[in-house]
Amino acid sequence: MTVPRSSLHHRPRCSSEIIAEAVCLCFRFPLSFRMVEDVLAYRGIFVTYKTVYEWAVKFGRTYASSIRRRTPRIGGEWDLDEVVITIKGEHHILWRAVDQDDFVIDVLVQKLRNTKASKLFMGKLFSAQGCAPRVMVTDKLRSYGAAKREIGLNVCDHRRHKGLNNRAENSHQPIQPRE
To answer: Which CATH entry fits the domain spanning 77-178: 3.30.420.10, 1.10.287.70, 1.20.58.220, 1.10.10.970?
Structure first.
């Protein structure tokens, strides 16, 4: 395979497919360079972790931006919900936001389940997304409405109903059996 001169992969001795696989493993999953070395060795590709590091430095930005472009767009209807989980014997609240396509937008673990905690979660959620949803669906927990008023979010329609936020409830299901 001949590589054109303008390509990023002109100088390396390995094929561009191997480099792409190694760099994507580094940036898509939380793997160390030594773990990527082991994964590639398991597949019959023997490179050192130092080589993987150099590839990540050289080609990482290109692959990270292409991965970022492939992430789905966030929809206009967000379902917010909370569930009680146990971590090391203590009760915590897992806050979760899901869009209409069942894509998990954000997750936050806190000890409290009050207006301050809800305001912190909503503030983190809106600042990370940079925009407010068209419709926000929650259960009947009153701290959502109080946090919405304190933030000053009057743009979106807030629907409170016990059965409307099934998307958020369903996204909690993988966690429930572990409890």
So the answer is: 3.30.420.10
